[in-house]
Write a structure and sequence with these properties.
Length: 163
């Protein structure tokens, strides 16, 4: 197996870029975590200066496509995140409780959310999903990319994690 980042990480489209990606309540594609040690969700806010949302992470029992539907059975998880709200200046990694955190109003931002698979251990669930609950109703152009790493059984072409 190559040492290239693109081959050590399993990439998944969490939410395709769209004009109002955190409208009302939205959920990312769920990903099956039992073959990985960590998930990193990269949220990109493009244009949309005033819209905000509360982000929480959910462990659940079934594969679920991105959209307005949560997994059938789920529970909130603690996680860590950092915000890049200006240029490439990284904020401190912050521990979030199961209540999540609120994004900041403003354009051109990145949020990096990390979840250790160990956090899911006691839940009995294998799938991980991000929830956006809109706080300030104003369209924000954005999307989410998910990077899974620490594969238990690394392969050049990894098995799907969305079914």
């Amino acid at each position: 197996m190559s040492g290239q980042l693109s081959q050590r990480v399993h990439w998944v489209k969490g939410i395709d870029a769209v004009a109002d990606f955190n409208d009302t309540t939205q959920y990312t594609q769920s990903v099956k975590m039992n073959g990985y040690s960590k998930a990193v969700f990269i949220v990109h806010h493009g244009v949309g200066a005033t819209g905000t949302a509360t982000i929480t992470m959910l462990a659940g029992d079934v594969a679920q496509a991105a959209g307005t539907t949560v997994m059938t059975n789920s529970t909130a998880l603690p996680f860590r995140y950092e915000a890049i709200t200006a240029g490439d200046t990284e904020g401190a990694y912050t521990a979030a409780t199961t209540a999540g955190f609120a994004t900041t109003a403003g354009s051109s931002q990145l949020y990096i959310i990390e979840v250790d698979a160990e956090e899911m251990g006691d839940t009995g669930y294998n799938y991980l999903q991000m929830k956006f609950a809109e706080v300030v109703n104003s369209p924000v152009l954005g999307g989410v990319i998910i990077a899974l790493h620490g594969a238990r059984f690394a392969q050049d072409v990894p098995a799907t994690v969305i079914t």
